[in-house]
Amino acid sequence: MDVICHSVDVEIPTTAAEPMLWSGWGDPARAAELPEPVRRLLGDLLGVRAPDTPAAALGEVRLPGPALPAPVVAGLEDAVGAGHVRRDHEARVRHTRGKSTPDLLRIRAGDGSDAPDAVVLPGSHDEVLAVLRICAAHRVAVVPFGGGTSVVGGLAADRRGFAGVVALDVSRLNRLVSVDAESMVAELEPGLRAPQAERLLAGHGFTLGHFPQSYEYATLGGFAAARSSGQASAGYGRFDDMVVGMTVATPRGTLELGRAPKSAAGPDLRQVILGSEGAFGVITSLRLRVRRVPAERLYEGWRFASFAEGTAALRRLAQDGPVPTVLRLSDETETMVGLARPDELGGLAADAGCLAVAGYEGEPGETRARRDAAAAVLAGLGGTCLGPGPGESWARGRYSAPYLRDSLLGAGATVETLETAGFWSALPGLYDAVRLSLQGSLGSPLVMCHVSHVYGTGASLYFTVVTAQSADPLGQWETAKKAANEAIVAAGGTISHHHGVGRDHRDAYAAEIGELGVEILRGIKDRLDPDGILNPGVLIAG
Fold first, then answer.
1. Is the pTM of this model over 0.85?
2. Where does the source fall among the domains of life (predicted)?
3. CA distance linking residue 392 with residue 404, whole number of Å
């Protein structure tokens, strides 16, 4: 059948404001309070009320007294230059924790107890090695720090048994080192933020095609360390799929990994570092597969009557093709609220069903042919094309949800996200289990979900939950998070599809891989980091 549904070309931003808001997400200029009508609606629906006390100012954040011994400070200054060892209040606050809801609740309450004693900014691989040697010799914990966008407690070291903590900020490692156009491989340093990397690669006609929600502020090193997955993963793959080689600094020396596209020469040690969240070493260089910049990007929206119907349609495309570059589906609640369009703070009608977004990138002829073929499949499986409007709106607001999260926190709501993945056959049970666990632990929250990434064998589910803050919002979310983690494990899902493990998922991750799996990881850490200084408490228990 003929499907009439026109698409529009959408641009990808290549700039980001700096620095990130210290007490929230992203560009400080975009931080805003919720409109009063929205506040009233939250009060009526969920009982949300404004917090009793205002958030702390930057200068009011309480930090532990500096603990680094003088010889350590002197050694670090010799290694990287005195100007690149910062111990001032603002630098320490800005390198305290990440950007999860618990992280922000603590920092807004003035709690900087996890702040590093110093922020060290090495400018080369050799300087990173020097910093690690000094810290190992004096038993100082080291937290590798990229964009600071972790949402799983991945940037809060366990201080116990250490002489101090330093944040090893890789932002000075920010070069495009080389481009092998023939092999379509580029070498880049880990401190490049994604928009910077895209701008540099575009000068050579290439793109990574990696656009997660953290795109504007996250770094390439962070993408690798947490096994990031971008919103265009259906077309470009996950970030770990893009890594063909890397250089890693460890307290024991240097690892050079990856010398061919594929190899049968034993286990792939790149996989040991990918997802290790700085617990095994510090990535100082990445060799990444790149793609040609697409001539056209097209996005459009589709309506399905139910989440089950829409999920079946996505599965059909993922398994039989043609596969769009972007493919995602919001459930009924998320569609009704309009969270697929977070920059507009307004949704579709209450009977809107479920909104799917499909995007296509490539050469004009090929892109439109793939779009037409996929549209025929979606229409044949019950989808109704809504035209380019919803797709364009999603693309325009694809990085806005964290700003909305911050606005809701400021209004007195507890709002947080969590995600998982499972095989297609397990997905309905996983979806129900997580929703029920959140509802059971929080009373009557608003729970929304979307399919964020698809594969031939399964998909990822991304949940957003909103509820009124209790008198103890940290305890409130910890209870809900624990229940959700247990539900994910029991329902056969993975504890994290793309956010990583950090501290928040550590126990559930141990349950997922089993006691022997934990012993294997601990053996790797003991060999690469015998003094245990790298991000202690993250990924695996000490």
1. yes
2. Bacteria
3. 19
CA separation for the pair 266, 260 (Å, rounded) = 13
Question: Helix 70-80 and helix 125-137: axis angle, to 10°?
Answer: 170
152 touches 500 (CB < 8 A): yes
DSSP codes joined into one string, 107-131: HHTTB-TT--SEEE---SHHHHHHH
CA dist 270 and 24 (Å) reads 33
179 DSSP β-pair partners: 186
250-274 CB burial, b ≥16 within 10 A, e <16: bbeeebebbeeeeeeeeeeebebbb
Q: Taking the CB of residue 248, how many other CB atoms lie within 10 A of it?
A: 26
Tens digits of residue pLDDT in 87-100? 999 999 999 999 99
Q: What are phi and psi of 185, to 5 degrees?
A: -130, 135
User: Which pair of tokens denotes residue 178?
Assistant: 């080389």
Measured distance CA(23)–CA(144) in Å, rounded = 20
Q: What is the pLDDT of residues 255-291, one digit of tens each?
A: 999 999 999 999 999 999 999 999 999 999 999 999 9
Q: Per DSSP, which regions of 319-445 are E strands?
A: 326-330, 354-362, 384-387, 413-423
* Rounded-to-integer distance, Cα 449 and Cα 451, Å: 7
CA distance 40 to 49: 9
Q: Return the amino acid letter for 95.
A: H
Tens digits of per-residue pLDDT, 353-380? 999 999 999 999 999 999 999 999 999 9
- Joined together, the tokens standing for residue 457 give 């064998």
Q: What are phi and psi of 274, to 5 degrees?
A: -60, 125
